[in-house]
Specification:
The chain is of the alpha/beta class and 670 residues long. It is 35% helix and 20% strand. It is built from 21 helices and 32 strands. It has a five-stranded mixed beta sheet. Strands 26-30-25-31-32 form a five-stranded parallel beta sheet. The two termini are 19 Å apart.
């Protein structure tokens, strides 16, 4: 997951391949709560791992559920509808997870304990008054701890004998389907007689209620439904574990890759996007996004657990759609509309305004940054397409809303080939932590940005490059490690860096079983990070780097690190030989005396005895050798920026490189 302040997506020109989607958030948190309320143990397969599910799991642990994770499965031992309470107030923090806050409010109101439910500031702006009103009709005791109608909440115990079950419980249908879902999931706890729920007005987001009813049936609760106006929970209902249950992949998450298949063409050898984990027969209402995508021109094939999507009509066809049945997935249509042949209108989307943010305003604001003309109202949005010349590079505010971030990544496929910046990309952790990695695995870029940081030994280029890469969310290449590992492998094989062994060493370099993970360098699974950082290993690296065949063998390996969204590479010839087309080249220098002092402190901290004079002599000798070698001598690229960090802190050096990088971007500083 990208945890950076922003993520720059370079212009993308195509996409093809296969993606595996994470589990559905809507199904995951419903299943978790039902398994917790049921008797027995439920084994859940393919559960979504996200912020929302972690929040729910934390709450269930606090309630006394047994939770055992093993790989991709989770075993939950439920409480059988009986709270294991010690009589003390239990505070539960639920983040920004509406799929946890709403159903837990209802369930805890009937479980008989003292609770405080709170969340992030945005959760305290998301209305819950209609659900609380419905529960207080029943006789539940719920108090607002802040603004009336909004969390945080205080829930007090109530005797089930005092509940009013004779009259129907009335709930508005035009606010949020999560309110009705919460009641349906919780009321079996109190069903000593039939409990009737009546919906006032038209019920929005009906497909989400279908999911709820389907899952209730899996856990032994058969709700009688009269149209969409009346639901009856039979007397004596009780939850029973289905023992095993599989979570479908998220149909809302599928929308981004369905749209991707409709927008992008692949290379000559591949075409289309295959989506695994969900099919057209999904129980999730958002799977009907397929119908909207087909209306816009996408070609979609499907099987029991997969979809294949290819570009059909181009430009896409404009649509005018009542999107009430696909409220979350419909956001993706608003970005697809930029590629259409006329204005597209999405109607009946009032629920967008009470989600993680006001999504109608958010989409209108950010689409406008791209250059689009947008009209919006209380329950609609109309998006006009963009001509190639009218696209603008935009820094997209995400409002801590995962779907805003994912939707706007599709704008990177624009025909003007301008990049898109996504602010706070980590918000996708709510439902799809690896979204951007998944997108990049199938996307093809017009060009992948590279920052090269070259310089002499002990100039600090490795520390600088690694931190710049972390802050930008880019891949990192420590080219010196490649040569050091090659030198280590050479020494282990009993070879020496001379012409007679050159071919053998080059073949060894070509097939190095090398892996970088969490700051470690692994050779055939063995951590050699410390072994390759010795002075002797550094000398071996310098020697093997002078062998032309070895350099050729490692050239392709180094260039393979150039992957989306970008790369920071450090070494001695990154900007001159390996990536001569890099967008930013930095030549980092420091005086030999300063470098010797830094290296001295480093070695002393490791318990290695040495002297400043010997270190300085070694560094000066290595500088002379590296700068005078016949193959790729150490020297700055002609267009390199020079950075002398003799008197700079590492933070100051990082800031300078990032400032130079920002100057080259078409976005305002972030």
């Amino acid at each position: 997951m990208f945890s950076t302040a922003f993520l720059d997506i370079p212009p993308l020109v195509g996409a093809a391949g296969t993606v595996q989607l994470p589990g559905s958030k809507s199904i995951s948190n419903r299943v978790l709560l039902l398994a917790a309320l049921a008797s027995g143990t439920t084994t859940i397969h393919d559960l979504l791992d996200s912020d929302d599910t972690r929040v729910m799991l934390d709450a269930l642990r606090a309630l006394g559920c047994g939770i055992d994770a093993a790989g991709s499965t989770l075993r939950i031992t439920g409480i059988g509808g009986q709270l294991k309470s010690n009589g003390q107030l239990l505070p539960l923090f639920l983040g920004n997870a509406g799929t946890a806050m709403r159903p837990l409010t209802a369930a805890l109101s009937l479980l008989g304990g003292d609770f405080e439910l709170s969340g992030v500031p945005r959760m305290h702006e998301r209305p819950i008054g209609d659900l609380v009103d419905a529960l207080t009709q029943l006789g539940c005791r719920i108090d607002y701890l802040g603004n009336p109608g909004y969390p945080p909440l205080r829930i007090s115990p109530v005797d089930h004998g005092a509940l009013v079950l004779d009259a129907p419980i009335r709930v508005r249908g035009d606010v949020s389907s999560q309110f009705l879902t919460a009641l349906l999931l919780a009321l079996p706890l109190a069903a000593r007689k039939d409990i009737v729920i009546e919906v006032v007005g038209e019920l929005i987001s009906k497909p989400y209620i279908e999911i709820t009813l389907n899952l209730l049936a899996r856990f032994g609760i058969t709700v009688r439904r009269d149209g969409w106006e009346r639901f009856t929970i039979p007397a004596g209902s009780s939850y029973s574990s289905p023992n095993d249950i599989h979570v479908e992949a998220d149909a809302s998450s599928a929308s981004y890759f369905i749209a991707l298949g409709a927008i992008a063409t692949g290379s000559s050898s591949q075409n289309g996007i295959r989506i695994e984990g969900v099919g057209a027969d999904s129980i999730q209402g958002d799977i009907r996004f397929i119908d909207a995508a087909r209306q816009m021109g996408a070609q979609v094939d499907s099987g029991p657990n997969w979809l294949e999507v290819r570009r059909g009509a181009w430009p896409l066809k404009a649509i005018d759609l009542d999107a009430n049945h696909i409220p979350d997935a419909a956001m993706t249509l608003a970005v697809m509309a930029l590629y259409a042949d006329g204005p597209s209108t999405l109607r009946n989307i009032a629920s967008w305004r009470v989600k993680e943010t006001d999504r109608i305003d958010a989409m209108a604001n950010e689409l406008g940054k791209l250059g689009a003309t947008v009209e919006s109202g209380p329950d609609f949005i109309r998006v006009y397409p963009l001509a190639p010349a009218d696209w603008r590079p935009a820094s997209i505010r995400t409002y801590d809303d995962h779907r805003v971030a994912m939707c706007f990544s599709l704008a990177a496929f624009n025909p003007a080939r301008v990049p898109v910046r996504i602010l706070e990309p980590h918000c996708v952790a709510k439902t799809f932590p690896d979204y951007f990695e998944t997108l990049f695995s199938v996307a093809e870029a017009a060009g992948i940005p590279v920052i090269c940081i070259d310089g002499p030994t002990a100039s600090g280029k490795g520390t600088l490059a690694a931190e710049v890469a972390r802050l930008l969310g880019y891949h990192y290449l420590d080219s010196g490690s490649l040569y050091r590992v090659t030198g280590l492998a050479m020494r282990r094989a009993g070879l020496s860096a001379d012409p007679q062994h050159e071919a053998q060493i080059a073949e060894m370099a070509r097939t190095l079983p090398l892996h970088f993970a969490e700051g470690k360098v692994l050779l055939a699974g063995q951590d050699v990070s410390d072994e390759i950082r010795t002075e002797a290993a550094g000398m071996d690296a310098s020697r093997v780097s002078t062998l032309p065949a070895v350099r050729e063998a490692l050239l392709t390996l180094q260039q393979s690190f150039r992957q989306l969204p970008g790369l920071v590479a450090d070494g001695r010839d990154m900007g001159t030989v390996i990536f001569p087309d890099a967008e930013l080249k930095v030549f980092l220098t420091a005086s030999a005396a300063q470098r010797a002092e830094r290296r001295h402190k480093q070695l002393i901290s490791k318990g290695i005895s040495t002297t400043l004079d010997s270190l300085r002599s070694d560094l000066e000798a290595r500088d002379a050798r590296d700068s005078s070698r016949s193959v790729a001598p150490l020297k700055p690229a002609q267009d390199a920026r020079h950075l002398d960090n003799s008197q700079l802190s590492i933070e100051q050096s990082i800031d300078q490189v990032l400032n130079w990088w920002q100057e080259k971007q078409p976005f305002k500083s972030a």
